[in-house]
């Protein structure tokens, strides 16, 4: 039988493999019979594979509902699927050859369905596992696979006084767990039950029907995983420690002992905790996770301070089976800076052998560099990059602890951070795909996707247009953008239904969020509305979107709707100036009563060029000086700063960063969700990482000047700096810039990639830039 299998496998390799991305699969979705298909449960699947020799390649496609971990001969080799929706269900490709050996091999998977407790970002139909053998179809999932339920698991829901939708903790009774199940150990295995044959989304079923899960190949790479160690012990009760947990050092706990350890990672992380221990049958062990501790007013204050504060956070709880060499690892990562370990032994002593963690994240690599005389800038870049990384796994996320949801408003900023810092566009393109796929029949996108509860923020659909244009300017795949162009028109058609005869929006449904603002008549992130139902802030966002859509068509050479967009934009400009401009204040009001003002409306007035350059300068001064304007949060300051630069205040950029300085002062290692840093729910929101864009775009001055970053415009804003240098990745290589003040002149060195030219601008002076090194001197002032 082994010889026949080997002959068939050899023939398959010689004749070429079936293209399962275009043809029906031989694999079936499978489950373990006898259990609910939708309730919480963790399941194990395995198949024995005999090989006389190990082939050079042994490719499989793998997916699951909700998610899986894939093992070969006991080694964890993969995790997935990357999140999507039912009509765009991802599978991952693996080459198992490096993990196989001649003779008996075990291919196994742990599959979990968190049921009603599952994260908001997790779509689900029912519990299922799928593996398609590409090199060897005989190993594909079906009734030849064995499965069973892991009865050691139960959910531990988290109760916090905030919006939380990121999944439960775990309760583990290790007396019910079988170690080494991945290599065939344990009892209770039974033939798997077929659910339905798997189909890629390029194929439909009989009579045009679709499969349950419409399968597509994930475009994402494997996640990065690396070992981390906790930094220090903050508090220890019931035990004396030496170097634990900074180094591996056993802790002996006698019978009938209670111990509590508050540990500080030193920085926020996303990681799987890994606890190794022996003995202590019946011992109760819990691990809890928090970004920071709270005072009696539910404020976090300085994140480095824990005295007199309480611990609130997600928790995992387990009961020891008394075995030697036990290892506990959660099936999903945890987000934490502080980890609280509590132990209560029973009649046996317990040996805690080690506690470490396994970091997980999208495999971004930092390819940007900044050298400055100001250490503060490096601190901000480090914190911003950590924030961006923790908010990026298999999608962008608003925050890793509380929601794990990909919101368009957040993702636009996150995407530019990705491009300016790493040049990696894979997660960005995945995000644009998901947003495009979320579009409803009416034309509008969802505000966040994937999310099994639909949420609509119409303004985020407008920012989606901006995000698409950002990728056209800074990315490399212009054809990808062109494929999305029809969706832009559908979004704008949706808004046209709510325009009155002047072009102003009326009765726009759903959540009309702009920014988290605490000011008069701002409610749940919505700006003030007038008695006539109008809002300058909403109309300015629509105007901006029409302008961006017109530029998209122009730069793509399409020009189907461009003239219409420009006419609508001009109509909106005239209406906004007539209805909301207050000449005596030199500002736009938020509503027609002209009683309330915001940084938001006036920021957008500058960005949309609704005002003259001189008026823009006046508005910029008032944005910085006048205190009765509803303030932009750390999120919307991305747009505020762009407006200030556009109005000629770019030399002052470093003075605009007080929100970020407050984060550093209060000990954060990632940027908080809100400008109220002490009271912020989330300590990690990458919509605050805009300095990781603007240090390069505003200070160094490196910007795109054409689609695909084919041309460069470099316009530095150095303020009081005497020296600044750095580089960013570019689709053709990298762009570097260096500025050194020598007496009254700047020594400038700019290097552009092959095939890329551009323009240098400095205080009214212009100079052409060529590929390669550009080395010149320029006067400090006119």
TrEMBL record:
A GO BP entry is: carbohydrate metabolic process
Domain Alpha-L-rhamnosidase C-terminal, residue spans = 701-759
Q: Where is the signal peptide?
A: none
Q: Which GO terms describe its molecular function?
A: hydrolase activity, hydrolyzing O-glycosyl compounds
Q: Which SUPFAM superfamilies match?
A: Galactose-binding domain-like, Six-hairpin glycosidases
Q: Where is the Alpha-L-rhamnosidase concanavalin-like domain?
A: 260-360
What domain of life does the native source organism fall in?
Bacteria
Q: Where is the Alpha-L-rhamnosidase six-hairpin glycosidase domain?
A: 378-691
PANTHER family in the cross-refs: B, PUTATIVE (AFU_ORTHOLOGUE AFUA_7G05040)-RELATED, C, PUTATIVE (AFU_ORTHOLOGUE AFUA_3G02880)-RELATED
Q: What is this protein called?
A: Alpha-L-rhamnosidase
Q: Which organism is it from?
A: Leadbetterella byssophila (strain DSM 17132 / JCM 16389 / KACC 11308 / NBRC 106382 / 4M15)
List the taxonomic lineage.
Bacteria, Pseudomonadati, Bacteroidota, Cytophagia, Cytophagales
């Amino acid at each position: 039988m082994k010889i026949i299998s080997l002959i068939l496998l050899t023939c398959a390799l010689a004749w070429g493999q079936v293209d399962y991305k275009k043809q029906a699969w031989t694999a079936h979705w499978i489950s373990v019979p006898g259990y609910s298909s939708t309730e919480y449960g963790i399941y194990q699947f395995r198949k024995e594979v005999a090989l006389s020799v190990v082939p050079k390649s042994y490719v499989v496609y793998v997916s699951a509902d909700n998610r899986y971990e894939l093992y070969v001969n006991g080694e964890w080799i993969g995790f997935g699927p990357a999140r999507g929706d039912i009509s765009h269900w991802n599978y991952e490709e693996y080459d198992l050859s490096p993990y196989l050996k001649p003779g008996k091999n075990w291919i196994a998977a742990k599959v979990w369905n968190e049921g009603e407790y599952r994260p908001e970002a997790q779509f689900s139909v029912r519990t299922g596992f799928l593996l398609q053998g590409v090199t060897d179809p005989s190993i594909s999932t079906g009734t030849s696979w064995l499965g069973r339920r892991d009865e050691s698991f139960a959910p531990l829901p988290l109760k916090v006084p905030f919006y939380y939708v990121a999944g439960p903790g775990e309760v583990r009774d290790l007396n019910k767990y079988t170690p080494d199940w991945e290599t065939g150990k344990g009892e209770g295995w039974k033939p798997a039950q077929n659910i339905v044959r798997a189909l890629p989304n390029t194929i439909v079923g009989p009579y045009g029907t679709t499969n349950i899960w419409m399968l597509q190949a994930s475009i994402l790479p494997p996640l990065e995983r690396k070992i981390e160690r906790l930094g220090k012990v903050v508090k220890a009760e019931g035990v004396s420690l030496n170097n634990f947990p900074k180094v591996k050092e056993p802790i002996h706990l006698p019978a009938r002992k209670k111990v509590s350890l508050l540990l500080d990672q030193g920085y926020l992380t996303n990681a799987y905790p890994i606890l190794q221990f022996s003995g202590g049958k019946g011992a109760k062990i819990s691990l809890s996770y928090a970004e920071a501790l709270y005072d009696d007013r539910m404020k976090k204050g300085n994140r480095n301070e824990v005295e007199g504060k309480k611990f609130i956070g997600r928790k995992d709880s387990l009961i020891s089976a008394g075995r030697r060499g036990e290892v506990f690892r959660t099936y999903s990562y945890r987000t934490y800076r502080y980890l609280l370990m509590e132990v209560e032994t029973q009649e046996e002593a317990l040996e805690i052998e080690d506690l470490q963690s396994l970091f997980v994240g999208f495999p971004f690599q930092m390819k940007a560099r900044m050298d400055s005389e100001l250490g503060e800038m490096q601190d901000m870049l480090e914190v911003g990059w950590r924030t961006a990384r923790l908010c990026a796994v298999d999608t962008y996320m608003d925050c890793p602890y509380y929601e794990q949801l990909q919101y368009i408003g957040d993702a636009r900023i996150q995407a530019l951070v990705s491009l300016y810092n790493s040049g990696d566009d894979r997660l960005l393109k995945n995000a644009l795909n998901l947003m495009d796929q979320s579009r409803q029949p009416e034309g509008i996108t969802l505000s966040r996707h994937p999310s099994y509860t639909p949420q609509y923020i119409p303004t985020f659909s407008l920012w989606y247009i901006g995000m698409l244009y950002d990728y056209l300017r800074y990315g490399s795949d212009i054809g990808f953008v062109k494929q999305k162009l029809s969706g832009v028109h559908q979004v704008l058609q949706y808004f046209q239904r709510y325009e009155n005869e002047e072009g102003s929006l009326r009765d726009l449904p759903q959540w009309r969020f702009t920014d988290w603002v605490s000011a008069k008549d701002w409610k749940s992130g919505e700006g003030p509305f007038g008695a006539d139902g109008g809002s300058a802030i909403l109309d300015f966002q629509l105007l901006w979107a029409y302008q961006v859509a017109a530029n998209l068509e122009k730069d793509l050479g399409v020009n189907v709707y461009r003239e219409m967009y420009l006419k609508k934009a001009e109509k909106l400009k005239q209406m906004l100036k007539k209805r909301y401009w207050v000449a005596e204040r030199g500002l736009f009001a938020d509503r027609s009563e002209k009683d309330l003002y915001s940084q938001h409306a006036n920021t957008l007035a500058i960005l949309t060029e609704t005002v003259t350059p001189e008026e823009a300068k006046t508005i910029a001064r008032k944005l910085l000086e006048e205190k009765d304007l509803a303030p932009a949060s750390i999120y919307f300051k991305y747009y505020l700063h762009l407006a200030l630069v556009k109005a000629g205040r770019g030399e002052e950029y470093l003075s605009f960063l007080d929100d970020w300085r407050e984060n550093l002062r209060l000990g954060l290692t990632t940027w908080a969700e809100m400008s109220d840093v002490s009271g912020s729910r989330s300590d990690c929101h990458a919509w605050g990482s805009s300095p990781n864009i603007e240090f390069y775009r505003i200070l160094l001055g490196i910007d795109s000047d054409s689609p695909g970053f084919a041309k460069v415009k470099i316009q530095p804003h150095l303020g009081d700096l005497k020296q600044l240098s750095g580089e960013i990745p570019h689709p053709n290589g990298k762009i570097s810039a260096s500025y050194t003040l020598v007496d009254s002149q700047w020594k400038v060195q700019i290097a552009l990639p092959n095939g890329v030219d551009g323009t240098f601008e400095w205080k009214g002076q212009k100079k052409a830039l060529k590929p390669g090194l550009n080395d010149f001197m320029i006067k400090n002032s006119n």
